[in-house]
Amino acid sequence: MAIIRTEGLTYTYSQGTPFEKTAVKNVDLEIEEGELVGIIGHTGSGKSTLIQHFNGLVKPTSGKIYVDGQDIWDEKNCRIRDIRFKVGLVFQYPEYQIFEETVYKDISFGPKNMGLDEKEIDRRVRETAALVGITDAQLQKSPFELSGGQKRRVAIAGVMAMEPKVLILDEPTAGLDPKGRDLILAQIKEYQKRTGSTILLVSHSMEDVAGFASKILVMNKSELYCYEDTPQVFKKADEITAMGLSVPQITRVFGRLRQMGVDIRTDVYTLDFAVKTLMEYMEKNGKDIEQC
Ligand code: ADP
Question: What contacts 263, CB < 8 A, 6 or more positions away?
């Protein structure tokens, strides 16, 4: 069953004023449980507005949204508070929202709000802290004694500790160096593996989502351009580039080889797969590495 489903989802800011702007237009979507979804699109394409619908932070101007089969704006049968526990949202630069005296208290804030008992809270805090590389000693420190990357991982752990069925992260790698970026992406992937939850990761970079996501959702000018398996999306690399989004460097190299007349596939987006594809090509065409 779809964990998130939308029907004709539309959202217009400042409706009826001269500043009216439709940020999400008529989106029909079904996201299956356990999926790792990369959401990409230009700045202003509607990504943030779309995801804020999924936990009821904004109410659609028109259309419907179902979480776990439930119409979340059916006020008789659904409480938005419950949806917030089911769908956790990590905003951009979440480290700016850290406010507790200790790292422990910060991670436990969400689980406490859920009314869980102390033992369960403690289990969740320690497990998620360990997952994001925070030691027991660091749990007792002030969050302000941590590095920028650590603070961000603490903020993410705070939402993970609520064990939502769906975890949404808006640009979790923004402003990080490649090492920090890879670390966060690996930890999110590990969290997904352990919990089987659904992950939606918003990014403006195809590079970020390429090796990470099982499916990619592309937003373009407030509309859903496509939602497909990652390899399918990379078959559209030319269209995506024409949209002004940059595809990973390795995908560009294979596209260029194709343009030069080399009969090679172009849906290549990770280094491992690039090596495999090149080896297969050489084997088939009887060329050795030197010639290539
Ligand atoms: P993205 O996350 O892809 O950058 P957004 O959902 O933030 O896109 O924005 C989509 C469109 O809605 C943009 O044109 C943006 O200017 C507009 N928008 C976003 N937030 C607001 C707001 N609070 N008021 C008015 N317009 C907004």
Answer: none
**Cβ–ligand 1 contact at 13 (below 6 Å):** yes
Distances (CA, A) of 70 to 56, 66, 165, 288: 12, 5, 14, 58
- Residues 9-19 have a mean pLDDT of 95
Matching residue, tokens 């004694």: 145
The residues, ordered by sequence, that sit 6+ positions from 167 with a Cβ below 8 Å of its Cβ are: 88, 90, 159, 160, 188, 191, 192, 197, 198, 199, 200
- pLDDT tens for 256-291 read 888 888 888 888 888 888 888 888 888 888 765 455
Domains along the sequence of the chain with CATH: 2-247 (3.40.50.300), 248-292 (no CATH)
pLDDT digits (tens, 9 = 90+) for 19-41: 999 999 999 999 999 999 999 99
Ligand 1 contact, 55 CB (< 6 A): no
Helices and strands (DSSP H and E) totals, the chain: 12, 10
Atom 17 in ligand 1: residue holding the nearest Cα:
23
The whole-chain average pLDDT of the chain stands at 92
* For the CA of 49, the nearest atom of ligand 1: 6
46 lines ligand 1 (CB under 6 A): yes
Residue 39 to residue 218: CA distance in whole angstroms: 6
| φ, ψ of residue 92 in degrees (nearest 5) | -65, 145
Q: Among the atoms of ligand 1, which is closest to the Cα of residue 42?
A: 3
